[in-house]
């Protein structure tokens, strides 16, 4: 169209008003032709994908904050780690991602609704533009450089579409109110309503519907045959919308977050695949809907192919979300995707034979007290060694990516507690930290390393455990202060140079660092010795040492009914040792403090021991004070008899 300035038009018409000139130009100008190029149509797909990702990211951020990042949230499924301790790297978040999620997750309702409306408007524009290329938000801008107030926008296409759609929606509501009582109960209410709304919108907004050419003022009714075609295509598009949404809503963001939480600790590295799965499925659904609108808007072989692709894609999305995904997570991760619970095999909490547990004996001045430990741990899994080997094989077969891994590692750790070996606990906790990223196991690892240091050195276990703390490993340090516990571990182990390096990284002054390292290293020279005689065939007696204030001692000295002791309580035992061929035992590397002596007695089967008589030296019933480096405390002789 030839552009004519206002001044030139006024001169040519002898001073006629600008409104008359505009009307004359509109009458002589050729009608606007709809754009039908593939580039324009498929650009709508890109915009619809952008709108879907934007709309889907808002609930993703809200659920992530409520379930993972807000400590006080009632929906929180993962405790927030303490700022004074290191955390598994799997729990770390980059500052940008954290700020973005918390900013969107904490938006007021009005702001979130505004964003939803914006992205919904973008998606609606793409769909309307796909079925009616003449639709646009405005026809252009008239600009007068001398009179600013005469600048305005033409919005006739938008006004015409709005005026047409509003009465159609009222009619659709009345029709739905009439037919809703006749819809069978096995059909979801959203299915016929979506088809009815979509049919009405197609009849009104399509290029051959009520609106027709958005640049004209005509509201011509389509012929009966064309109207039936529009209703059919609109209903089919509504079915595509419903099927696609049925598949998309089967895997909402909260289910993805709960799934990755079942597999271990969730930070950005674990959250990112779940976020991509949710956003990718939303983008795929948007692309299908836009492609379906384009195909159903065309009357050609290409349009038929596009419509078929959209139909098959929607059916595939529904099958993926409602059938394939739950089956895959059950088979691959042992997780129920819908209920967000682990799926245990039938053998998981069964053991072929019982090992009889551990008998725990606390020497006293009079008659001794013998208690049994439970044969299963906190997770309810039997602690039979053969059964735990089968569980470990299952973990390795799954690559440790299974919803059963937290319970399995808890059982393996309970078994290590029963063995009374701090280095075995270190090894088990390190393996759990490496594969799970759970802060609980990291806390246990640090505590067990502090306990084990000073006992007979297992260089391989200690070396592998300390590798976890190296730069780029599986342990992260959110603040400088979180490096102090690691420096303490090196000081306990006698590695003063490494301890000073960690203290320096934590910002500790050099003088204070040396003083702290010396404090941690000092006092690891205490020893306790004794003799165990009268060993019975099949029994495995061991001497053990626990702090005087430990809960395991409180359980054994409490009055009233004696209850079996949970295996996890035995982790408070700092040292244990089997006697040699002469019955002598020695517990080394004990830190300064007050302790009590215990005896762990393991039998191959419960029924083997009907009655057991234990006598001990009175010295074994007394508290043991370790306050002199290099000193040895002799607790005398323990005798076992049937």
What features would you describe in this structure?
By secondary structure, this protein is α+β, with helices and mostly antiparallel strands. It is 51% helix and 12% strand. It contains 20 helices and 16 strands. The protein has helices spanning 6-12, 18-28, 38-69, 95-105, 109-131, 156-179, 190-205, 224-248, 253-262, 268-297, 301-333, 385-397, 405-419, 422-436, 439-452, 459-467, 484-492, 496-505, 510-521, 551-557; strands spanning 87-88, 140-142, 152-154, 335-336, 341-342, 358-362, 369-372, 475-476, 526-533, 540-547, 575-577, 584-590, 593-602, 613-616, 624-626, 632-641. The strands form 5 sheets. Strands 6, 7, 10, 11, 13 and 15 form a 6-stranded antiparallel β-sheet that branches. The chain has a 4-stranded mixed β-sheet with strand order 12-9-16-14, with no helix packed on it. A hairpin with a 4-residue loop joins strand 4 (335-336) and strand 5 (341-342). Helix 3 crosses helix 4 (95-105) and helix 12 packs antiparallel against helix 13. The longest helix is centred in the middle third of the chain and has 33 residues, at 301-333. The protein is elongated and about 110 Å long. The model is unreliable at 1-36 (pLDDT under 50).
Number of strands: 16
Sheet-strand content, in percent, reads: 5-15%
Radius of gyration: 37 Å
> What would you call the structural class?
alpha+beta
Q: How is the main sheet built?
A: 6 strands, antiparallel
Low-confidence stretches: 1-36
Shape: elongated
- Helix coverage percent of residues? 40-55%
Helix segment count?
20
């Amino acid at each position: 169209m030839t552009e004519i300035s206002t001044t030139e038009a006024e001169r040519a018409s002898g001073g006629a008003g600008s409104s008359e000139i505009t009307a004359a130009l509109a009458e002589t100008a050729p009608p606007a032709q709809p754009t039908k190029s593939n580039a324009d149509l498929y650009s709508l797909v890109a915009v619809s994908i952008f709108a879907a990702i934007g709309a889907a990211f808002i609930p993703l951020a809200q659920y992530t904050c409520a379930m993972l990042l807000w400590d006080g949230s009632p929906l929180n499924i993962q405790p927030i780690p303490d700022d004074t301790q290191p955390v598994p790297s799997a729990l770390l978040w980059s500052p940008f991602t954290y700020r973005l999620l918390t900013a969107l997750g904490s938006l007021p309702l009005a702001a979130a609704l505004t964003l939803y409306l914006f992205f919904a408007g973008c998606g609606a524009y793409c769909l309307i533009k796909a079925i009616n290329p003449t639709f646009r938000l405005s026809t252009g801008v008239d600009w007068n450089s001398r009179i600013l107030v005469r600048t305005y926008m033409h919005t006739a296409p938008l006004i015409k579409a709005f005026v047409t759609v509003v009465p159609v929606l009222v009619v659709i509501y009345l029709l739905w109110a009439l037919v809703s009582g006749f819809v069978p109960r096995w059909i979801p209410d959203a299915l016929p309503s979506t088809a009815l709304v979509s049919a009405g919108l197609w009849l009104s907004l399509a290029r051959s519907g009520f609106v027709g050419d958005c640049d004209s003022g005509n509201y011509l009714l389509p012929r009966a045959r064309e109207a039936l075609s529009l209703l059919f295509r609109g209903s089919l598009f509504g079915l595509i919308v419903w099927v696609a949404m049925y598949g998309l809503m089967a895997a909402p963001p909260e289910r993805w977050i709960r799934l990755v939480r079942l597999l271990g600790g969730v930070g950005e590295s674990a959250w990112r695949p779940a976020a991509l799965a949710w956003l990718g499925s939303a983008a795929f659904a948007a692309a299908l809907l836009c492609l379906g609108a384009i195909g159903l808007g065309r009357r050609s072989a290409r349009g038929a192919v596009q419509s078929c692709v959209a139909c098959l894609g929607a059916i595939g999305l529904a099958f993926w979300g409602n059938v394939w995904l739950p089956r895959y997570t059950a088979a691959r991760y042992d997780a129920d995707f819908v209920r967000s619970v682990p799926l245990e095999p039938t053998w998981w909490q069964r053991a072929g034979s019982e090992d009889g547990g551990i008998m725990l004996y606390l020497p006293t001045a009079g008659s001794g007290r013998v208690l049994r430990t439970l044969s299963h741990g906190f997770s309810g899994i039997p602690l039979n060694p053969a059964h735990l080997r089968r569980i470990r094989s299952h973990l390795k077969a799954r690559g440790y990516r299974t919803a059963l891994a937290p319970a399995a590692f808890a059982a393996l750790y309970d078994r290590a507690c029963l063995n009374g070996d701090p280095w075995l606990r270190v090894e088990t906790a390190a393996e759990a930290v490496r594969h799970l990223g759970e802060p609980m196991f990291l806390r246990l690892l640090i505590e067990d390393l502090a306990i084990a240091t000073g006992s007979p050195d297992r260089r391989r276990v200690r070396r592998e455990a300390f590798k976890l703390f190296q730069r780029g490993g599986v342990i992260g340090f959110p603040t400088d202060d979180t490096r102090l516990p690691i420096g303490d571990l090196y000081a306990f182990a006698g590695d003063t140079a490494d301890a000073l390096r960690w203290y320096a990284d934590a910002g500790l002054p050099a003088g204070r660092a040396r003083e702290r390292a010396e404090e941690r290293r000092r006092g690891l020279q205490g020893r306790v010795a004794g003799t165990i005689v009268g060993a019975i065939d099949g029994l495995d007696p061991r001497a053990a040492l626990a702090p005087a204030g430990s809960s395991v001692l409180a359980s054994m000295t409490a009055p009233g009914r004696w209850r079996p002791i949970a295996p996890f309580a035995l982790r408070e035992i700092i040292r244990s040792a089997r006697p040699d061929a002469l019955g002598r035992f020695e517990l080394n590397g004990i830190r300064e403090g007050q302790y009590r002596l215990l005896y762990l007695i393991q039998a191959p089967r419960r029924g083997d021991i009907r009655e057991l008589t234990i006598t001990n030296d009175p010295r074994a019933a007394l508290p043991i004070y370790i306050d002199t480096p290099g000193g040895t405390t002799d607790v005398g002789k323990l005798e076992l008899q049937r």
